[in-house]
């Protein structure tokens, strides 16, 4: 029975949520980007989470530790939602009809996602606090 | 529950409780970590009834007579390991993720407080022993 297991689980969540926040920042930063290396406007990225048991040893371990799983970012998906189009004939990237394709990013959605990521991060940070306190209390036994 | 030297049954029970609460905390961490994972079903460790049963078992099951014999009496304190229960998924949001943040935070606080209570009681127990040992001075 390892007292650090729960902290490792929570830390996997912290790094997953941090990755998510990075992706959200990238989306917000590129909300008006019409030129990307791969051509065309920027497309919204979104993270996909997956519960993780990284190694075979961990799978084996699970027989005795059922119910315990960390989390990891399975992939960063490029959103295939349709791009926004606005009529702006003066824009250098406007097509012949004067329409400009803008990234398929909804700022409000990103803000909500960002708050969600922050709160989840906090919840997991408090789980680490709790585990840590428990471990410290155990060290005080017999003092 | 055999009495090991100067430690009585309570010390054994408290040790077991610490173990189980620690495991419970791992499961809560796991639920919190997967709060955004689609399709994740949260779990919960239940051991109170098993522990109670083990404590009620006054028969003091005899230890196996041979090291390779299995103890079939069941219900002894060492054997309590709790059951991992899957919680129902009914938030109705359609992401098939059943983690309830508030519920998890409350359970976590509760678990932590019980853990600290158990460590305090252990400390008191050990303190008493220490007092007795030193009372000759």
TrEMBL record, chain A:
Subcellular location: Bacterial flagellum basal body
Coiled-coil residue windows: none
Domain Flagellar basal-body/hook protein C-terminal, first and last residues per copy: 97-140
Short name of any one Pfam family annotated for the protein: Flg_bb_rod
A biological-process GO annotation: bacterial-type flagellum-dependent swarming motility
Swiss-Prot/TrEMBL keywords: Bacterial flagellum, Cell projection, Cilium, Flagellum
Domain Flagellar basal body rod protein N-terminal intervals: 7-34
UniProt GO cellular component terms: bacterial-type flagellum basal body, rod
Similarity field: Belongs to the flagella basal body rod proteins family.
Self-association and partners: The basal body constitutes a major portion of the flagellar organelle and consists of four rings (L,P,S, and M) mounted on a central rod. The rod consists of about 26 subunits of FlgG in the distal portion, and FlgB, FlgC and FlgF are thought to build up the proximal portion of the rod with about 6 subunits each.
Name of this protein: Flagellar basal-body rod protein FlgC
Upper classification of the organism: Bacteria, Pseudomonadati, Thermodesulfobacteriota, Desulfuromonadia, Desulfuromonadales
TrEMBL record, chain B:
Signal sequence extent: none
Alphabetized InterPro entries for the sequence: Flag_bb_rod_N (IPR001444), FlgB (IPR006300)
Record's keyword annotation contains ATP-binding: no
A GO-annotated cellular component: bacterial-type flagellum basal body, rod
Record bears the keyword Transport: no
Domain called Flagellar basal body rod protein N-terminal: residue spans: 24-41
Pfam family, one: Flg_bb_rod
Main subcellular location of this protein, as a coarse class: other
UniProt keyword annotations, A-Z: Bacterial flagellum, Cell projection, Cilium, Flagellum
Location(s), subcellular: Bacterial flagellum basal body
One of the GO BP terms on file: bacterial-type flagellum-dependent swarming motility
Family: Belongs to the flagella basal body rod proteins family.
Function of the molecule: Structural component of flagellum, the bacterial motility apparatus. Part of the rod structure of flagellar basal body.
Subunit structure: The basal body constitutes a major portion of the flagellar organelle and consists of a number of rings mounted on a central rod.
Listed PANTHER family: FLAGELLAR BASAL BODY ROD PROTEIN FLGB, FLAGELLAR PROTEIN
Protein name: Flagellar basal body rod protein FlgB
């Amino acid at each position: 029975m390892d007292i650090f297991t729960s902290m490792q689980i929570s830390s996997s969540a912290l790094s997953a949520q941090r990755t998510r926040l990075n992706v959200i920042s990238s989306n917000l930063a590129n909300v008006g980007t019409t030129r990307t290396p791969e051509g065309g406007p920027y497309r919204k990225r979104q993270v996909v989470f997956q519960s993780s048991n990284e190694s075979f040893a961990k799978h084996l371990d699970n027989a005795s530790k059922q119910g315990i799983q960390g989390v990891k970012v399975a992939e960063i998906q490029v959103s295939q939602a349709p791009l926004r189009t606005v009529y702006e004939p003066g824009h250098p990237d406007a097509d012949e009809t004067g329409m400009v394709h803008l990234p398929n990013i909804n700022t409000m959605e990103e803000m909500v996602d960002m708050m969600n990521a922050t709160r989840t991060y906090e919840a997991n940070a408090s789980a680490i606090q709790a585990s840590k306190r428990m471990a410290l209390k155990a060290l005080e036994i017999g003092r | 529950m055999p009495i090991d030297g100067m430690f009585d049954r309570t010390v054994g029970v408290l040790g077991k409780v610490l173990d189980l609460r620690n495991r419970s905390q791992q499961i809560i961490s796991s639920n919190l970590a997967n709060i955004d994972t689609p399709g994740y079903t949260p779990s919960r460790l239940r051991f109170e009834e098993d522990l109670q049963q083990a404590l009620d078992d006054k028969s003091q099951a005899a230890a196996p007579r041979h090291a390779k014999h299995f103890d079939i009496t069941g219900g002894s304190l060492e054997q309590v390991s709790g059951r991992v229960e899957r919680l129902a998924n009914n938030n109705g949001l359609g992401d098939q993720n059943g983690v309830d943040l508030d519920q998890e935070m409350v359970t976590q606080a509760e678990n932590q407080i019980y853990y600290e209570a158990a460590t305090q009681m252990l400390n008191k127990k050990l303190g008493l022993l220490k007092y007795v040992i030193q009372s000759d001075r």
